[in-house]
Amino acid sequence: MSEPAEPRGRAVHPFRAAIESRDVDAALALLHEDVIFRSPVVFTPYRGRFAVDPILRAVIEVFEDFRYTREIGAPDASDHALLFRTRVGDKQLEGCDFLHSDTDGRITEFTVMIRPLKGTQALAEAMSARLSDSA
């Protein structure tokens, strides 16, 4: 099945642009200092840009062939959904980054959901190894 086409000429969310260009510093700069990050593999949310920093840096290395496939949300809306496809090892994953921004445009809530379960498990293992190596 082919990916649905996005409207041509539509501006993409700044977070999407930063991630697509692999500019982690630019992506982190978009996060509110007290952002709440909900991971697909950890029950308790992470709080604060400082806590999200190593996670975002690790995931950009763990995800292979990452691409956003669709963006949902008006340019001036406070809520956006960024659908993506990627791979971790031999496991294909589909996911969505749900972003909520404050009136200043800073991302205050960042939730990631991923499917299928085997892909999520592969992600959890790879992230655990990556984060323990960097500790």
Can you walk through the features of this model?
With 135 residues, the chain is an alpha+beta fold. It contains 4 helices and 6 strands; from the N terminus they run H-H-E-E-H-E-E-E-E-H. Strands 2-1-6-5-4-3 form a 6-stranded mixed sheet. A hairpin with a 2-residue loop joins strand 4 and strand 5. The relative contact order is 0.18. The mean pLDDT is 91.
Element layout with pairings:
Elements: H1 14-20, H2 24-29, E1 31-38, E2 46-47, H3 49-62, E3 64-72, E4 79-88, E5 91-101, E6 107-115, H4 117-134
Parallel strand pairs: 1-6
Antiparallel strand pairs: 1-2, 3-4, 4-5, 5-6
Helix pairs in contact: 3-4
State the assembly state of the protein chains. Answer: single chain
Largest sheet: 6 strands, mixed
Q: Radius of gyration from the CA trace?
A: 14 Å
User: For the largest beta sheet, what order do the strands appear in spatially?
Assistant: 2-1-6-5-4-3
What helical percentage do the residues reach? 25-40%
Number of continuous helical runs? 4
Poorly predicted sequence stretches spanning 5 or more consecutive residues: none
Distance between the termini: 41 Å
Give a short summary of the structure:
The protein has four helices and six strands.
Any descriptors?
single chain; 135 residues; alpha+beta; six-stranded mixed β-sheet; 4 helices
